[in-house]
Write a structure and sequence with these properties.
It is a single chain. By secondary structure, the protein is α+β, with helices and mostly antiparallel strands. It folds into three domains: about 40 residues, no CATH class; about 35 residues, no CATH class; about 30 residues, no CATH class. About 40% of the residues lie in helices and about 20% in strands. The chain has four helices and three strands; from the N terminus they run βββαααα. A three-stranded antiparallel beta sheet has the order 1-2-3. It is flat, with a radius of gyration of 26 Å.
């Protein structure tokens, strides 16, 4: 739950708003702080557990066979992303631009030598 949904806190009661998907309207709910914390903690996964994000045709097992069929049914062309170059991968892995560091080192060597 985001902080923007919290509306009021007073003497141990927390009020928040949410969208009721059955009616399509926003509703306001007031809960005790213990119940609010309990509901929040119920969404926290235990250590080493991973959230399953994809289901249906996006599951890892079926994506390769079913996703092209989905693109075909929607009459969309599948665009393959460009593969990043070596320099981009190194920059992402190390967090620094090694080429820039090498150029700077070479410039310093030329000045001193």
């Amino acid at each position: 739950m985001s902080v923007s949904r919290l509306q009021h806190y007073c003497s141990g009661a927390v009020s928040h708003h949410y969208l009721d998907h059955r009616t399509g309207k926003h509703k306001r709910q007031t809960l005790s702080q213990e119940e609010m914390i309990g509901r929040y903690i119920s969404h926290v996964l235990a250590r080493h557990f991973k959230m399953v994000r994809y289901s249906g045709f996006l599951t890892n097992r079926k994506r390769g066979t079913l996703l092209p069929l989905v693109y075909e049914a929607l009459l969309q062309a599948r665009e393959k992303p460009e593969k990043p170059g070596f320099a981009v991968l190194i920059k992402g892995f190390l967090g620094t631009d090694r080429m820039h560091s090498l150029q700077r080192s070479a410039a310093l060597c030329r000045r001193s030598g």
